Amino acid sequence: MRSTYRFLANSIAVLVVVQAGAIAWAFFGLSNWIRNDNGVVDKAFMESGDSFGVAEWGFIIHAGIIGLLVIPLLALVMLIVSFFAKVPGGVMLAVTVFVLVALQVVVLPALAREVGSGFGALHGINALVLMGAALGAGKRAASVKVDSPGTTATLPG
Length: 157
Prior knowledge:
This protein is mainly α. It has helices at residues 2-37, 43-48, 57-82, 90-114, 118-142; strands at 144-146, 152-154. It has a two-stranded antiparallel ribbon with strand order 1-2. Strand 1 and strand 2 form a beta hairpin. Helix 1 (2-37) runs antiparallel to helix 5 (118-142), helix 3 (57-82) packs antiparallel against helix 4 (90-114) and helix 4 packs antiparallel against helix 5 (118-142). The mean pLDDT is 89.
């Protein structure tokens, strides 16, 4: 179970990096479409279903596939696994990751839409905090050494 916990934590951290790449791809593709093809983004474009090109997949990956489905699912599974993984402090780290994911997926996007786009900056900052927490959880799981069957001890350092 510790290896599963570690895999989930590290997967979440890697997917945060994928998210950063996906959103950058989308925005650079959108800006190139505006600059090079005289594209216009307005309410009519947003509601039309038209596309600005293949880079639009960056938005789909970021806000849909990975952002709304994969990372939240991995965070939930990691939380469940944490109760059985016997990683010292692992449950608290999994709760932290889960709460940061909930902030990332539900709270900060809603605040950015309803209150102000400044919350979009917090969305990016929270992503970095989430990645750090996930990496910390993965490192914690890797530092657990099995003394004898049924017991664990952490490695020094």
